[in-house]
């Protein structure tokens, strides 16, 4: 009997991948969850683990082949097979057995939990416990940081920590091992001391080299591009060269060879800094979340034909309606009536008339969405995140307010799940809470529109031939001009303005 190895889910809007590297060959013995091959998409690199232990049978998709989601990659035959374990397994065997021998009792591995769709690795942010500490079941052991959320790792059972395999700052893969827990209640000192000399003895041998091997996909790309390892500066842990580093090196070499009077900003070294100034500076590594924010925002500028159109809205009607019903609203629903529910409702109303603002481009296709999953940008101490209010067009005012309030609170506490930040079709960003009077928001790919709200400020306006003081707000709609024409963008913003200046239009669907 054989077990099929298939292409896993590759992430939102990703339907195919390229087989980059096979780590095993037919006839090799494999253990459950051991990495078999690596797939590359246009967004991420995905490792495919073995679904069961056995012997690798036929490889259906070879390196370089393009495969779709759930396509057959290979088969695994039952049994360990007649062939001896591959070299990689022999080399890793002592590592796996060492904690068990040193523990002197039943041990439990502390593993990296599922990190979410399209997220394959994380950085160990903080260990709350150290070797020798006793822990209770489900007690928090450490915190991992991905490029989207923070993930807490609970103790799988009660016991004592006997070994920590991934220190703070190290990068770990989904399903990797973080440490070992002994349920015997005693922390053997043998475990830590046994590994220490080994680490020390290895250090001199590797002093002139990297601690870890470069990523397989990076090696392959370097070979194809004719680059040497010393030509690429690694950004991974301990200088490990990643696929992105090779891409950057290739781009840099192209830029250098192209005739240009102005060097690329990325190639310009930092200007010399006086010793006095350098002593007063602080260099801090960017968090994975901040790196992802930077990359995605720049990708949005490079990919979309982004344009922004502006308008202003008189907030008098909304403010009067809110003041009239806010006490009754809070008494009945137990939550305050804010402005966000009005803006969400107004945007849902406008998106029905201008559906291309709620669409996205997929290759040469346009995907029109018959639903509104509203992203609401929230500022947190670690950076900007965008939780998604699903089916916002079908929600009442109090459900919208309650959902946004709950998600905003959990976003600031770092408690949002990956699923709650994916699948948005349109986004609202409220810079007004920080005092912004006007700005141009950047698209949240692959979305085609984002509405920027701003500060409400009283200004003199002409109303019915008279100058009156009105609470005014500037609105900004950034949109992807590839699928949204100027007429559609302006129409959308005008419909939002009309709905806010006369909220009765929302009730009458006008």
TrEMBL record:
Stretches the record annotates as Disordered: 77-103, 184-280
Domain called Lipoyl-binding: residue spans: 2-77, 107-182
GO molecular function: dihydrolipoyllysine-residue succinyltransferase activity
EC number(s) on file: 2.3.1.61
Signal peptide from the UniProt entry: none
Pathway annotation from the record: Amino-acid degradation; L-lysine degradation via saccharopine pathway; glutaryl-CoA from L-lysine: step 6/6
Basic and acidic residues: bias regions: 86-98, 227-246
InterPro entries in the record: 2-oxoacid_dehydrogenase (IPR050537), 2-oxoacid_DH_actylTfrase (IPR001078), Biotin_lipoyl (IPR000089), CAT-like_dom_sf (IPR023213), E3-bd_dom_sf (IPR036625), PSBD (IPR004167), Single_hybrid_motif (IPR011053), SucB (IPR006255)
Domain Peripheral subunit-binding (PSBD): residue ranges: 213-250
Protein known as: Dihydrolipoyllysine-residue succinyltransferase component of 2-oxoglutarate dehydrogenase complex
Organism of provenance: Maritimibacter harenae
Phylogenetic placement of the source organism: Bacteria, Pseudomonadati, Pseudomonadota, Alphaproteobacteria, Rhodobacterales
The gene coding this protein: odhB
């Amino acid at each position: 009997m054989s077990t099929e190895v298939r292409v896993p889910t590759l992430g939102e809007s990703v339907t195919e991948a390229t087989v980059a590297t096979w780590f095993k060959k037919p006839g090799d013995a494999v253990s459950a969850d051991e990495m078999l091959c690596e797939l590359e998409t246009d967004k991420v690199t995905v490792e495919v683990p073995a679904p069961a232990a056995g012997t690798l049978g036929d490889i259906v998709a070879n390196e370089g082949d393009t495969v779709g989601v759930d396509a057959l990659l290979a088969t695994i035959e039952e049994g360990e097979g007649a062939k001896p374990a591959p070299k990689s397994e022999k080399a890793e065997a002592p590592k796996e057995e060492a904690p068990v021998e040193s523990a002197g009792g039943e041990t439990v591995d502390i593993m990296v939990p599922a990190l979410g769709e399209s997220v394959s690795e994380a950085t160990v942010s903080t260990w709350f416990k150290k070797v020798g500490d006793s822990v209770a079941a489900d007690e928090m052991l450490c915190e991992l940081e991905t490029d989207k959320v923070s993930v807490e790792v609970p103790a799988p059972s009660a016991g004592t920590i006997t070994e920590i395999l991934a220190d703070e700052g190290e990068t770990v893969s989904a399903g990797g091992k973080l440490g070992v827990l002994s349920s015997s209640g005693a922390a053997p000192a043998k475990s830590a001391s046994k590994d220490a000399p080994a680490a020390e003895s290895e250090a001199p041998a590797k002093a002139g080299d990297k601690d870890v091997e470069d990523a397989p996909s990076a090696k392959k790309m370097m070979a194809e591009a004719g680059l040497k390892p010393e030509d690429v500066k690694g950004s991974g842990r301990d200088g490990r060269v990643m696929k992105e580093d090779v891409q950057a090196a290739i781009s840099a070499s192209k830029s250098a060879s192209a005739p240009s009077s102005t060097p690329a900003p990325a190639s310009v070294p930092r200007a010399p800094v006086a010793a006095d100034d350098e002593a007063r500076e602080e260099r801090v590594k960017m968090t994975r979340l901040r790196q992802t924010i930077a990359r995605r925002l720049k990708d949005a500028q490079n990919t979309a034909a982004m344009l922004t159109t502006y308008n202003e809205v008189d907030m008098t009607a909304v403010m009067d309606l809110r003041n009239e019903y806010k006490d009754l609203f809070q008494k009945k629903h137990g939550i305050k009536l804010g402005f966000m529910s009005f803006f969400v409702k107004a945007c849902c109303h406008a998106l029905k008339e201008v559906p291309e603002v709620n669409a996205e481009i997929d290759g040469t296709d346009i995907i029109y969405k018959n639903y509104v999953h509203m992203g609401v940008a929230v500022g947190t101490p670690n950076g900007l995140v965008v939780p998604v209010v699903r089916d916002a067009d079908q929600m009442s005012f109090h459900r919208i307010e309650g959902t946004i309030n709950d998600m905003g609170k959990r976003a600031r506490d770092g408690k949002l799940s990956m699923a709650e930040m994916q699948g948005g079709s349109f986004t609202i960003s409220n810079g007004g809470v920080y005092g912004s009077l006007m700005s141009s928001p950047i698209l949240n790919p692959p979305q085609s529109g984002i509405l920027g709200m701003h500060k409400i400020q009283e200004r003199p306006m002409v109303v019915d031939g008279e100058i009156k003081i009105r609470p005014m707000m500037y609105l900004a709609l950034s949109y992807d001009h590839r699928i949204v024409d100027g007429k559609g963008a302006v129409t959308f913003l005008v419909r939002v303005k009309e709905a806010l200046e006369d909220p009765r239009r929302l009730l009458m669907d006008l």
